Amino acid sequence: MQESDCIFCMIASGAIPSYKVASNETSISFLDINPIARGHILVIPRKHFSGLDDVDHEAFAGTMELALRITRSISGGRFSEGTNLFVSNGEAADQTVKHLHVHIVPRNSDDNLQWNSWWLSKVKQYSEGEMADTLELIRKCME
Length: 143
Ligand code: 5GP
Ligand code: ZN
Hints:
Blueprint: H1 7-13, E1 20-23, E2 27-31, E3 41-45, H2 57-74, E4 82-86, E5 102-107, H3 115-121, H4 128-141
Antiparallel strand pairs: 1-2, 2-3, 3-5, 4-5
Bound molecules: guanosine-5'-monophosphate and zinc ion.
């Protein structure tokens, strides 16, 4: 993808409008246009990186630092009781905008998002052998 075609690069440059939340040297944040909860925020590096595979450490650290500042500011009852933070990395992970972004979803005990029941409905059982094989595969990836 060309950076000139990237919707989040256009938001970062101000070429298209957004509801800006806060920013730091490396990163900006703004309200998601299709929020799954009130106050759903996206935090992105100012520079274009498609995702976790190509982001540099400085941009990632700055993006996470801003996400941490926002979540600490809004949670604990100031705006919401809690938050979920997540990154969709790659098409298989349902990433739709190919500019790295961290979702911050404000959460309240009565918000009926049913995140936990969805999660529990996906829980799988693996044998001890399968767990050991899985661990070996992941550790090999990290060599
Ligand atoms: P993904 O599915 O890639 O993890 O999330 C992309 C997010 O970007 C979606 O939640 C979507 O609503 C949001 N989004 C897509 N286009 C725009 C836009 O033009 N402005 C804003 N503020 N959010 C957008
Ligand atoms: Zn971009």
